[in-house]
Write a structure and sequence with these properties.
4 copies of one chain form a homotetramer.
Chain A lengths: L2 E11 L3 E5 L9 E10 L4 E6 L6 E7 L2 E12 L19 H4 L14 H8 L4 H15 L1 E2 L10 H7 L1 E2 L1 H14 L4 E7 L9 E8 L9 E5 L11 E6 L8 E4 L2 E12 L1
Parallel strand pairs in A: 7-8
Antiparallel strand pairs in A: 1-6, 1-14, 2-5, 2-13, 3-6, 4-5, 9-10, 9-12, 10-11
Chain lengths: ~260, ~260, ~260, ~260
C-alpha cells in the first residue's frame, strides 16, 4: 500500500533573498521512493545539501519575485514496527554517538525545566511504558487548537497553555522524553490521516526492542494520534522545529498558498 | 610553541549513575597532540563515542562512588589565522551542509529574538567587519562577573543583564552572529591567558577569506578577549553550552574539585 | 487653551459577559473638565467604581450583543510643569505611602532584571538628570513600530527587541526608573500630537522640585516624544498596562471600531 | 485562644542604605493586638507609612552597619470563617473598587497565561467550589521543597516545576483564581503550625457568603495546608510577594539571622 503525496506552495519576495526549503519525502532505507518529481520556478541559485542525520535534503535558493513549488511522490514504507510499550530503555551510557545529541536541550524543548514534573508524574515507569504514559498524558490533557500557537511557542509555553498544533504536541513529547534521559528528536513528515491535510510533525524516541538484535533504534510516536508509525513518510529530523521548517527565509517573503494531499492507496 | 595542559577533577555519587564527559583536547588537523594522557578511576562501564562535528570525543561512564579524572597533554597548533575583520560573509545560499545547522536557534541562543536589535545596531556592516563590531559591542557593554550567571542563563538573559562569564559571552556572540545569518557555534576549549585558569568557552563563526580558495571556514572569536585564535585548544563544538558541557550527569553527583592549568612554553 | 477630546468605539458579544471600561478624562485637580458627555448603549448592568489612586473611574458593564460608546469632553490643564532634568531624587526612605507601591515590580515591568544594566548605563546620574538620560536612551535606541508588539509584550521583551508602541515605551521607561529606585507609574491618556490619533500611554515618575515646598510629586515623561506634560490629559494610572486598559473583557468580545480625536484649540 | 508571636532578625550593611521592612502583625478589625513590642537598633532615619489596602505598616530605615530587629506580640483573632466551598462567586460587574485591582496580572502571577488550563481543568465549577478544586489540585500535584525556588520564581515557573515553598504555593493559588476572574491577593502572615517556623504566605480570595449580607469579602486559603483561616495573623497584603516582602533593601545588605516563633495558647 504505497502512499501518494502531493504538495505545492508559492511565495513572493520584493527583493532577492536566500530561502532554505525542506519539503520532500526523504530517500532512506525505511522508505522507498517509487516515484518523485519536484518542479520549481527558476531561481538565481539553487543547490541541494544533505539535511540533519543524512535524512532528506535541503534546497538553497536565491529568489527574486514569485516562486512556485510543486511536488509529487509515491512512497513505499518498510519500517521497524514494534509497539512502543514493549520497548526497553537504552541506558544512557550505552547510547551511540548519533543518539547522544538528542539528549540535550534545544530551542523549543527545554527539558531541564521539566525534570521535576517528569520525575513526579512518570518516575515510576521506564522505557516504552514511560513513553506511552507521556503520550497518553499529552493526549488527554491537551486540546488540538489551530491558531493557539505560533513560530515562537516553546514546549514550556505549550505545557502551560495545554493546547497547540502538531508542532507543539511533538515539542512536548520530545521534551518529556529528554527530561527522562531518553533521546528524542522532532520529525517533519507527511501522513494520510492528518486533518486538515498539511505538513505534519511527530516525535521519535531512541529505544531498544528486546526481541531484535542491536542496541537501539528510533521509534515514531504521535501525541496527536493523527498518524501511525506505519503510514508516516519522513521529510526530515532535527532537535526541534527550528531545524526542519519546510521553508526558512532570510529576508521578507510573502507566503501565498499551500496545498498538501496525502493518500494511501 | 606547544601548549601544555593539565586538568583534574573529582566527583562522588551516592548510587550508580551515568555520566558523560568531554574534557580532552580534540585530535583534529588544526591541533596536533604531541602527547596526551588520561587517567580515570575504575568505572562499571566506560566507552568513548565521537562528539559533535567529529571534533573530540565524549566518554560515557557508569559511576558508583568517588571518581577522579586526571588529564595532561601537549598540543601544537596549526590554525588558519586570518584577521576576522578581513573576512567575507558567505551568502546563506552558498553554505555547505555542515554549516547550515549553525544558522538555527538553540537552547541558549535564541537568535530570533535578537533580529531587530542586530538589524538596527549592526545592519550597516557585513561579514567579518560586522562580527568584529558585535565583538566590540559585547566587550564594551558587558562586565565579566563570576557568579552572575548559572547553568540556565540564556543569551537573552545575558543581553538584559549585561554581565556573565565566558559561557555567556560566547552565547551572546553566537546569537548575534546567527541573527545576522552567519553560522556560529560554541567552542569549549583550553587557553593559556584565561584568568582564573579554568575550562574556557569562545564562539566560532563561518566566514570566508578572500585570499584563500574554498567557500568558507570556521574562525574563532572571543568576546572576553582572554584568548586568541592562535592559542586556543579546542575540546569540542556544539550549538551552545548544552552540547559541550565538560560533565553531564544523569542523576545526582557531588562535584568536589577542579584544577586546570594551561601554559605556553 | 483647552483640549477637546472625542472618542468612540463599539464591540459585540455573542453572549452576556462582564466588561470593564476606563476611557474618560479623569476629574482631578490638575485637569478641570469644562464639559464631558458619555453616551453608551443600554446594558443589563452598569456601575461606576473609582479607579487606581482615585484618578478617574472604571465602568462595569454586563453586555449582551452590540455595544457602543461615544465620549466627548473639553479639558483645561493646570499642571505642575518643572523641567524633568531639574528635579531631584526623593531618597527612598522619605517616600510617602502612596509612592512606595510604585517601587515594586509589576506584570510588564520586571525592574529586578534591569538593575545591572541601569547601574552600568545610568549609575553616574541621579534624579531628573538620570530619568532624562533613560528617556534619551530609549528615544535613540528604539523604533516606533506599530504591530511589533502585543498585549503580552513586557518591558524585557521590548528591551530585547528595541521596538514597540507607546505602551511599550512607557513600560521600559517605568522599568528603568524603578530599577534605580525611583517610583514610576503607567499613565493612560489623551494627547493632541499622537500620530495616528489613538489612546496614548506615558510614564510618570515621583521626584521633587527643589524650588517647591513638599516632599515630591508625580512628573510625566513620554519616551516616544509625541506628548508633552502640558498637553497630556490623564485617563488613569496604574503599575503598568494591565491596570489601565481602556477595555477589559471577561469573555469573548468582538472589537469593531475605534476613533479618537484630540485637538488643542 | 490568643496567638503569641516572636520574631527577630539582623542584617549588616557596608555603607548607608535604605531599607523597607514589613514584619509586624497588622492592627485591623479582624485581629486585635493584645500587646505588641518592636525593638530596633538606632537608624539614621526611621519612619512608618501605611501599607497596601491600609493593612499593616511599612517601616522606612536608613541603615549604616549592623541592625537588629526584635518583635513580640499577642493577637486575638475575630475573623469571618465560612467554609470556602460554601461561598459564591461575585460576578465581576458587581465587584467593588477595592477588589478590582486584584483581578489584574502582577509580576509573579501571570494569570493571562493560565486561562486555557483553568478553563479546561476547573471550568465546570464556580465560586468557592472552584477555588477548593484549585486548592486541591495544587496540594496533590505540588511538592513542598525548600530551596527549590528563589526570589525570582514566578507562578508560571512553579506550575512547570511542580514544587516550591509557601510563597510559590500562594502565587499559584492567586494566579489560578485570577485566571477565573476571582480577585485574589497575596498575604504575608504568621501561623502557628508552619514547619519549620518562619514567616508564612497564603492567598486570599474575594467571594461572598450567601448567608451573610453584603456583596463579598476576603477569605483566606492556604494551598500548603499548614495554616487555617482561624489561626492566621496577617502582616500585609499585596498583589504578590513583590509587595509584601518582610525586608526590601535598596543596596547590599548582609542578612545574618532570623528567628520566628508562633504559638497558640
Amino acid at each position: 500500500m504505497p502512499i501518494s503525496i502531493s504538495a505545492s506552495f508559492a511565495f513572493e519576495t520584493a527583493e532577492p533573498i536566500d530561502i532554505l526549503l525542506q519539503f520532500e519525502a526523504a530517500a532512506i532505507p525505511e522508505q522507498r521512493l517509487i516515484s518523485a518529481r519536484t518542479t520549481m520556478s527558476d531561481a538565481d541559485h539553487c543547490a541541494r545539501v544533505s539535511a540533519g542525520d543524512d535524512i532528506g535534503e535541503r534546497i538553497w535558493l536565491r529568489v527574486d519575485g514569485r516562486f512556485e513549488v510543486d511536488y509529487a511522490s509515491e512512497v513505499e514504507l518498510d519500517r521497524l514496527l514494534s509497539p512502543v510499550s514493549s520497548l526497553k530503555r537504552v541506558p544512557p551510557h550505552e547510547l551511540p554517538a548519533e543518539a547522544v545529541k538528542y539528549l540535550f536541550d534545544s530551542r523549543y524543548c527545554q527539558a531541564d525545566r521539566m525534570q521535576s514534573f517528569v520525575h513526579d508524574e512518570f518516575g515510576g515507569l521506564t522505557g516504552g511504558a514511560q513513553i506511552m504514559a507521556m503520550h497518553d498524558w499529552i493526549s488527554s490533557n491537551f486540546t488540538y487548537a489551530p491558531g493557539s500557537s505560533n513560530a515562537s511557542t516553546t514546549a514550556v509555553d505549550s505545557f502551560i497553555e495545554r493546547r497547540g498544533v502538531c508542532r507543539d504536541y511533538a515539542h512536548v513529547m520530545v521534551t518529556l522524553a529528554r527530561a527522562s534521559a531518553v533521546p528524542a528528536r522532532f520529525v517533519s513528515c507527511f501522513a494520510p490521516q492528518v486533518t486538515p491535510q498539511d505538513f505534519h510533525a511527530v516525535a521519535e524516541v531512541f529505544l531498544s526492542d528486546p526481541t531484535t538484535p542491536g542496541g537501539g533504534a528510533w521509534y515514531l510516536i504521535d501525541a496527536t494520534n493523527m498518524a501511525n508509525a506505519e503510514d508516516i513518510v519522513k521529510i526530515g529530523v532535527g532537535r526541534d522545529a527550528a531545524d526542519v521548517s519546510f521553508m526558512t527565509s532570510f529576508g521578507a517573503a510573502d507566503f501565498q498558498c499551500k496545498e498538501v494531499a496525502v493518500t494511501q492507496s
